[in-house]
Amino acid sequence: MASRIDDMDRKILDTLQEDASQSLDEIARRVGSSKTPVWNRIRKLRESGIIKQNTVILDAEALGFEACFFVLIRTSEHEAAWQAKFLQALQDRPEVQEAHRLAGDIDYILKVRVANARAYDTFYQALISEVRVHNVTALLSMEEIKSTARLPL
């Protein structure tokens, strides 16, 4: 359920999405307000859970993580115990940047960032040794065309 926010909240959120390291003075200037009301709104947005965390976006390739795989997983297991074990296995692996449960023929899709194909194979072997899956298809991304966490406010 979407939280109730107004136009000023949207302006603040959009400004923070662009660059969360901006000073409070800069954010206030950009949204046309003063520091105290902007700070109070940011605090309320954090308390309500709309702002989840502040972080930085790193250049994966510059850090040696040159391979991005999208991993499609089908399973014949749908029991709660299997799902809990599978979800824990994903949480324990920093290579998994995203994981989604899907509707349709594929049960899960993972975004996995690793150094190369050999590193992906190491990840894959560890995953299938820990949890049973029916079918795994790995798709190597040849080029990242767009990637953003920014919401269209």
Task: Summarize the topology.
Blueprint: H1 7-18, H2 24-31, H3 35-47, E1 67-74, H4 80-91, E2 96-101, E3 108-114, H5 117-130, E4 135-140
Antiparallel strand pairs: 1-3, 1-4, 2-3
Helix pairs in contact: 1-2
In short:
With 153 residues, this protein is an alpha+beta fold. Helix content is 39%, strand content 18%. The two termini are 16 Å apart.
3D architecture notes:
By secondary structure, the chain is of the alpha+beta class. The protein has 2 domains: 7-47, Winged helix-like DNA-binding domain superfamily/Winged helix DNA-binding domain (Arc Repressor Mutant, subunit A, Orthogonal Bundle), CATH 1.10.10; 61-140, Alpha-Beta Plaits (2-Layer Sandwich), CATH 3.30.70. 39% of the residues lie in helices and 18% in strands. The chain has 5 helices and 4 strands. The protein has a 4-stranded antiparallel sheet with strand order 2-3-1-4. Helix 1 (7-18) crosses helix 2 (24-31).
